[in-house]
Amino acid sequence: MTLSLTTYAAPSRFYAAAGAWVPWCWAVAALFGAAGLYTGFAIAPTDFQQGDAYRIIFIHVPAAWMSMWLYLVMAFWAAIGWMLNARMSAMLARAVAPTGAMFTFIALWTGALWGKPTWGTWWVWDARLTSEFILLLLYGGYIALTEAIDDPRRAANAGALLALVGVVNVPIIYFSVRWWNTLHQGSSINLGAAPKMAATMLTAMLLMTVCFWAYSFAVVFTRARAVVLEQESDTDWVKALARPEGTQ
Amino acid sequence: MNWQSFDQFVHMGGYGLYVWGSYSVTLVLMLAEALAVRHRRNLALAAARSQTKMEMTR
User: Fold this and answer.
1) Which single residue of A119, A213, A216, B13 could bond A115 by disulfide (Cβ 3.0 to 4.6 Å)?
2) Distance CA B45, CA B58 (A)
3) B35: pLDDT strictly greater than 90
4) pLDDT per residue over A195-229, tens digit each?
5) How far is A192 from chain B (nearest CA, A)?
6) 8 Å CB contact between B37 and A227
7) What is the signed CA dihedral for A141, B29, A106, A125, rounded to 10 degrees?
8) How far off is chain A from B22, nearest CA to CA, in Å?
9) CA distances to A44, A162, A172, A185 from A193, in Å
10) Beta bridge pairs of residue A51
């Protein structure tokens, strides 16, 4: 058996392989989610400044990370699909978008519910919050654009252009707390420096991050399989798959 | 363990509404999305099946 990156470029192969991966992704998501929640609520102590409101960050920070990573993943596959005219890449990009949008919404929602008791306001037009809100608009625009165009190839190419232009927003979100000195605090975790938080709190956050990643894989693969069936319904392999058992 | 009783756990040191408001919405959205994508794949498979069936009886 030869395995390479191009092995799963064929929608039929991707469909079968993704079907086998999805249950494992769910298992990892459930395991790490349970461990993360246990660590976050039973082990991590109450914060001496923020009280128990800080426990929101165990989902807020991973959701915000996912919103940015998934955008990069979406733009990457959209670009590959566009440049190499690879159908499977374009379908993957479309399958990522709704999950990215959902995590962006969760980041904004949990941020508002954390901001009210901690900052005294649900929302401010701070650089971090504004750029994250623009990310939600970019996801929405990408989904609306790709859904509005009937021809899958034209839809994928138009979406890829929008996704690639929007990539510029991701570093703006990430570095906004450094470039502009506004309300949202700087990052607690930086490469090359000790995290500015207790080890148990960091552990809970990282466990939830793995849970969100595994969840994203499970949901995106399942959606990608649906997109493959929808777009490839006229191909022989889908017809063979859809044929009732025991018939030719 | 941080909490002596279930009531204390729900209360979250006075931040119950904010903490559970965050976790419940996150959980509901993730479950809803998971069910929605499963439903979408089942629909797509059913559509492919009925199309194949029509072509076979033609």
Assistant:
1) A119
2) 20
3) yes
4) 667 888 999 999 999 999 999 999 999 999 999 99
5) 31
6) no
7) 60
8) 5
9) 22, 35, 21, 16
10) A47
The CA distance from A128 to A130, in Å, is 6
Judged by CB atoms closer than 8 Å, whether chains meet at A226 and B26 is answered as: no
Strand partners, A47: A51
pTM attached to this predicted model: 0.92
Mark yes or no for CB contact B2/A215 under 8 Å. Answer: no
Q: What is the pLDDT of residue A1?
A: 44
**Percent of chain A predicted with pLDDT > 70:** 92
What phi and psi, each to the nearest 5 degrees, are found at residue A51? 65, -145
Which candidate, A15, A218, A92, places its Cα nearest to that of B30? A218
Nearest chain A Cα to B12, which residue? Answer: A52
pLDDT tens digits for range A39-69: 999 999 888 888 899 999 999 999 999 999 9
Mean pLDDT, residues A106-135 taken together: 93
Please tell me the least confidently modeled range out of A25-29, A56-60, A72-76, A243-247.
A243-247
Asked whether the beta carbons of A207 and A39 are under 8 A apart, the reply is: yes
In 3D, which of A207, A186, A206 has the Cα closest to residue A196?
A186
For chain A, what percent of residues have pLDDT higher than 90? 71
State the Cα angle at A201 between A198 and A203, rounded to 5°. Answer: 110
Q: SS3 of A51, please?
A: strand
What ipTM was assigned to the predicted interfaces of this complex? 0.92
Query: Which of B5, B18, B20, B55 is the best residue to mutate to test the A interface, defined by the most A CB atoms within 10 Å of its own CB?
Result: B18
If one counts every other C-beta atom within 10 angstroms of the C-beta of residue A207, the result is 22
Mean pLDDT over all residues of chain A? 90
